[in-house]
Amino acid sequence: MRGFLGLRSHRRQPPPLPLFPTAKRPSQPAASLLLAPLSRLLPASRLLRLLLLLAVLSLAPPAFFHLRLRRFYRMRERKCGWIASPPMVCAHGGESTNAFPNSMDAFHMALDSRVDCVEIDISRSFDGVLLALHDRDLQRMSGNSTAKVGYWSKDEIKALSTRFQLSKRVQNEEIPKAEDALAMISQLVRQVILDVKVGPPSFEKDLAEDVLSLISRTNCKNCLVWAKSDNLGRDIIKLSKDVAVGYIVMVDKSTGRRTELVRIEGAKVAGVYHPLIDEKVMKDIHSFLALKTDMIEESLHGLLTIATP
What's the pTM? Predict the structure, then answer.
């Protein structure tokens, strides 16, 4: 019995539980786990680390200004969308400030100024020749305030122009034929406007055919024809679907009222005399485009202004 008891007394007892269990060691933070691979990539030298930090900081200002600049351009595009498609600069009669209007000098100066567009005044002489000439310029040359190109022959105008000093550089320069002026200009600008002058009703006879023949001979693909006479515009539209036609909105001298804003079916451009352009005119144009786009072949393709009647 004693030996049995002795055997029990030598049995191993489990260790006692601690009264105050020790706190668990905090696990390594996730951030340090993520940065551990990065720290291996960084150079061990503190100097190199400092230089790398300075390099990163030096890139911050350019990146900041780049983002600010992008934001500025986006805001400007919203406010100034027309910058992407600016209006054309058109020289009426060429560079008529420093040269005689519609002269070769005026056209050359306009081309040297790199204008987008040139407007040529087209008049037909008594014997059927199309000239780059306006009635008011003939009146200035002749001293006759009632002179009309349609009452003068080509030879009479030629004799007058050789006596009148058209050019400061060339002696005895003549009034150019419309064909010569158009052949020189059409390939060097984006747009050519042929402002066809029409006098009494007899002046309109076969005028549309003559203008289309002029365009065909010079192979002008960027010609726009307009006139104060709606009959001429309608005649050209009937004879050709390939030539762009416009019309002019002005103040009717006989009534003192503005001519109709939308009036020629098939026209592509409305040329509005600049003092007439106001908020109401723009609203009328937008309303027309929204409600009656079927009346004009391509609606009002553009809005051009003219400086003189």
Answer: 0.68
